[in-house]
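agent> call fold_tool(seq_1)
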Amino acid sequence: MKLLLDEMFAPSVAEQLRDRGYDVASVHDSANRRLEGAPDEEIWAAAIADDRVLVSENVRDFRRIEADALARGQPIARLIYTSDRQFPRGDPRTTGRLVRALDALLAKPPDTATMLFLKPSTAG
């Protein structure tokens, strides 16, 4: 599974996951800088074009975009949602917790679900 991390995640999350051998892109990567501050529809389209699962906290907007795409019979992006409650942005431990949770998810066989909500990993 290849991931595209939305802009609320620090670039170090993608870097640490790449260091673990995963194919993870971030909107903050130099190749994706056009996506920083871009409308959600552009980030959605980039995830589809690159066959990546989109990781975001933005449930409301991406659920709306998904519903619109389904209604028009268009392709949909697979989504992994996080929350500021589970992974607080102001907490310096969040990056490590998010990396561990995504690592645990990526280490499993691919899930066929089109959407899931990420929870902190219980592993070390």
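agent> call fold_tool(seq_2)
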Amino acid sequence: MFLRILMLIVASACYAGNAASEEPAIPSEQEVIQFQTKLGVVTFRHQMHAGLSSTECTTCHHTFKAEEGPVKPCHACHEHDKKSADNAPKAKTVFHTRCIGCHEYTVEQGETAGPLKKKCKLCHVK
């Protein structure tokens, strides 16, 4: 429940749009986001990722369209522990696939990236 509320706040705050572009600005309180998980706290450096030259908001916020309003929180479609009614994968599956997949791709391109698979404790800190 806490995570759903946090994601809703994040999504709502992200829509404080930037007049110079269609990409919403990230509010200062959302530059670093922490998620409580069973394995420990995951810290996501939202502003750092948004500042990467190869990353657009729609890379992660795949349903975002500025003209349609605020960014929807991930958990609006991706449930915590099961597939949703519309067959969207579980949040855990999506986060692991999206984050680890991007880190692996970045390393394959010869650049440095964050933690890779099978190194859970690099993201999940107790």
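agent> summarizing second result for user.
The beta strands are 33-37, 40-44, 124-125. The longest strand covers residues 33-37.
agent> awaiting next instruction.
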